[in-house]
Amino acid sequence: SRSLMPEYGGQDGPHPALARSYVELGDMGNAGDVLTEFSRLNDKDEWAFGELARIRESQGDLEGAVNALRRIPWVHPYDATVYDRMADLGGQAGDWTSVVASRTALLALNPVDRAQALYELALAQHSAGDDRGARTSVIEALEIAPNFEAALELLLEIREGDDR
After folding, report:
1. Residue 164 pLDDT
2. CB-neighbour burial class of residue 160 (10 A; exposed 0-12, middle 13-18, buried 19+)
3. What is the DSSP secondary-structure string of 108-126?
4. Helix axes 131-144, 114-127, angle to 10 degrees
5. Which of 21, 37, 126, 158 is at 20 to 30 A from 96, Cα to Cα?
6. How far apart are CA 104 and CA 86, in angstroms?
C-alpha cells in the first residue's frame, strides 16, 4: 500500500501499480494525481512522465501533457519522438514558442529528412510570428530539396506577408 511506503519512488513501489489500476478503472483524475506524486519522488522515470502526459492529454490538459513530456529529455535527451510529441501538443494548444523549441531540438538531433524538419521548424516560427527565422529555415529546407512544394508555398506566404 502507498501508506506503508509513501516516499518510495521505485518502479516496483506502490505508485506505478496504483496508477495502472486507476487507468484500468478509467479514473484518470486519480491516476494523474498518483503519477504526479510519483514523479516528485522519482525524477528519472520516463514511463511515469509519458503516462502522465497521456493522461493529461486525455483530460484535455495539453499544457499539463507538455509539462510532463518536458521532463523526459532530462533523462533521455536523444528521443526524437518526445520532441515531436511536444511539438504536436504545443501546436494543438497554440503554444508556438514551445513548438519552435521542440522543432529546434529535433533539428539538432540530425533527422534523416532534414528538409522536412526545417520546413516544420519554419511553420512553427511563422505561426509564432518570427517570419525572419521562418524565412531562414524554409530557404535552408529549399537548398536541400529545391522542389519541396510545401516549403515553396510557405516561402511565398511569408513573402506576401512582407509586402503588407
Report:
1. 57
2. exposed
3. HT--S-HHHHHHHHHHHHH
4. 160
5. 37
6. 12
CB 99 within 8 A of CB 128: yes
Give φ, ψ of 130 to 5 degrees: -100, 75
Residue carrying the nine cell digits 514551445? 98
The answer to whether 25 and 1 have CB atoms below 8 angstroms apart is: no
pLDDT (average), residues 145-150 = 96
Q: How much is the CA Rg of the chain, to the nearest whole Å?
A: 20
**Angle subtended by helix axes 14-25 and 46-58, to nearest 10:** 30
How many helical (H) and strand (E) elements, i.e. helices and strands, does the chain have? 10, 0
Phi, psi of 8 (to 5 degrees): -80, 125
* Amino acid (1-letter code) at residue 109: L
pLDDT in the model for residue 77:
92
